[in-house]
Design goal:
The chain is an alpha/beta fold. It folds into three domains: 83 residues, Orthogonal Bundle (Arc Repressor Mutant, subunit A); 95 residues, 3-Layer(aba) Sandwich (D-Maltodextrin-Binding Protein, domain 2), CATH 3.40.190; 99 residues, D-Maltodextrin-Binding Protein, domain 2. It is built from nine helices and 14 strands. Strands 4-3-5-14-6 form a five-stranded mixed sheet, with helices on one face. It has a three-stranded antiparallel sheet with strand order 12-7-13. Strands 1-2 form a two-stranded antiparallel sheet. Helix 5 links the parallel strand 3 and strand 4. Helix 1 packs across helix 3 and helix 1 packs across helix 4. The longest helix has 24 residues. The chain is elongated, with a radius of gyration of 23 Å. The two termini are 44 Å apart. The model has no long low-confidence stretch (mean pLDDT 87).
């Protein structure tokens, strides 16, 4: 096997895993047309069709699935072997790919980007923000960040940062116009800025006080999927919003937002950094975790 064979097999595994030339191209750092050409070259040399292609989808053939099943463990072994070489270099290098929800990226990771990249200039950091539940192994990520209840059992999970608190806020203009609820059940009579998850489900606001837990399906004129837009809607007086406390803290201190139902919004477990249980952790991830610890996040 020569170098080009290994490169094509790695590219095939990426395409087969993503079932998309465009997504695989982003991970591999090449164009989709270059990947397509590489796959045609590989199939011609092997004299076997590995991928079924239509204008709307790419799926592995039976032969492709069998090849992928045997390739992935071997490619992981090769990747781990290359990662171990970082231990012998004065300057670690490589790409660290993380999949994180947007709030965690903004509140936890963004303050570390400049420091980490300055400390390790040969490391390329790629952060994909995604509020959905993602299979980080299938997506080619080294690690991800999620709340603890969302983690698969076979993942190594490390607590990241302090407990997180979600709170209800409203602008003074909304309070003057509509008043404010005193109990979570009263939210039914108020305009609320809703949140839709990537799965399509609309979030029911969760509350807890003195052992009593409530889940309220709110309603209102605006439904969003982005935290910054939800906060902006609250500031503009469109309705009540359920947001991360850290995200709204500055506006609360400035008097631009009011806390609502505060006693019903206790802290909950924070984010977790998680990664597959492997024999050898990538050096890039090990260094990133060390910086998180040095920064007091663990």
């Amino acid at each position: 096997m020569n170098k080009s064979d290994l490169s094509e097999l790695d590219a095939f595994a990426c395409v087969a895993r993503h079932r998309s030339f465009s997504k695989a191209a982003l991970e591999c750092g090449v164009s989709a047309s270059a990947l397509s050409h590489a796959m045609r070259t590989l199939e011609t040399r092997l004299a076997v069709r590995l991928l079924n292609r239509t204008t709307r989808s790419v799926t592995p053939t039976e032969a492709g699935l069998q090849l992928l099943q045997h390739l992935e463990p071997a490619l992981r072994e090769i990747g781990e072997a290359l990662d171990r070489l970082n231990d012998f270099r004065d300057t670690p290098r490589g790409t660290l790919r993380l999949n994180v929800p947007r709030p965690a990226a903004r509140l936890l990771l963004a303050p570390l980007f400049a420091r980490f990249l300055a400390a390790y200039p040969q490391i390329r950091l790629e952060v994909v923000t995604d509020d959905g539940l993602v299979d980080i192994v299938a997506g080619g990520f080294d690690a991800g960040i999620r709340f603890g209840e969302s983690l698969a059992q076979d993942m190594v999970a490390l607590p990241l940062g302090p407990p997180v608190r979600l709170i209800v806020v409203a602008s003074p203009m909304y309070a003057a116009r509509r008043g404010l609820p005193r109990q979570p059940q009263e939210l039914k009579q108020h305009a609320c800025v809703g949140r839709r998850f990537p799965s399509g489900a609309v979030y029911a606001w969760e509350f807890s006080k003195d052992g009593e837990a409530l889940s309220i399906a709110v309603d209102g004129p605006l439904l969003l999927d982005d935290d910054e837009l939800i906060l902006r809607a609250a500031l503009d007086g469109i309705g009540l919003a359920y947001v991360y406390e850290a995200q709204a803290q500055e506006s609360i201190e400035q008097g631009r937002l009011l806390r609502v139902l505060d006693a019903w919004c206790p802290p909950m477990s924070g984010f977790f950094l998680y990664y597959p249980s492997r024999r050898q952790m990538p050096a890039t991830l090990r260094l990133f975790i060390a910086m998180l610890r040095d920064s007091g996040y663990q």
